Description:
By secondary structure, the protein is of the alpha/beta class. The chain is about 45% helix and about 15% strand.
Amino acid sequence: MISIILPCYNPDRQYLIECIKSIKRQSYYDYELIIINDGSDKPYSDFIKKIVITDQRFRLIEQENKGVSETRNRGVKEAKGKYILFVDADDILMEGFLEEALNIAIETEADVIQGSTFYLNGKIKAEEKTFSYKVLKESDKRDIIIQMLDVSKSQYNNIGNNKGKIARGPWCKLIRKESAEETLFNSRLYLGEDRVWNLELIENSKKVCIVYRNWYIYRSHGKSVSHKFDHNRINSYGNYLNAIRRIIPDEHEIILHYQILVFEVFCELLDGHFFNPLYPDKKNRKVNIHILLEEDIWNEINRLNYAGLSKKRMIMLFLIKHHFFTLYHYIRKFYLYFIL
Length: 340
């Protein structure tokens, strides 16, 4: 049996209906759907309850709001199936996903069956009936780790007719329950917990199988960028990067892509924190950025070499290394994205 874990917090009703329909359309029937209501408001809770009573395979767990990481962990602990599948309430499973993934799991005896995810953007194209898969060797695992660190550097992009990829989220993975129990989500992280979990899952699993088939549709929301200021943003990013560094192997190529990740996260910090319109200490902004760069984790930027970087990254890295922070910000915002 497969246990499908579906966290819900004030879900969009139409999206949730479409998600549930995609699960019920699966050709494999021996599953339980564990819907965990993570403290939704009453109208949403009532709607979730109406959905649960429509199918005897559906099971409802209600709790106070604890966040998606603790909610997924709760689902793993409550699961009765041999395999675990995480689904988000606004996403869609392609037809045949469960049956195809389970057959491959039985054949390969893999701990993780990883399919491809694509973003819902217009009309969904029909996928080919035939597809390939492979059990990863240790060298292949390194490539997946690099994919998790730097999605632009991977052979696992542009899969199938819908141009899917191996996602950094927990979706589109059929996971042996023992592996899921060994790799729970870090509820102490306030961002990046999905990527950290993915890296731990790869490291903890003896056998991982990659399937070159689009099984999962991720619905991207075009929400506007918030200008809300988060005073804990620096610590949150630091905890996230430290968690990744503790997991990844100490290999040259992997460390290189980790350094690129640190650089990219630092760029996000400059834009979203130090140059946020609500940043409270604009007078000492440059001094505060200098101080941050002296910390061990951010000092990885100084060790990052220009070789192999894209033109855009090279320019940004040069500006940051030479402390042209304001110039960096305005070039990134008004010029670079339109030219390169």
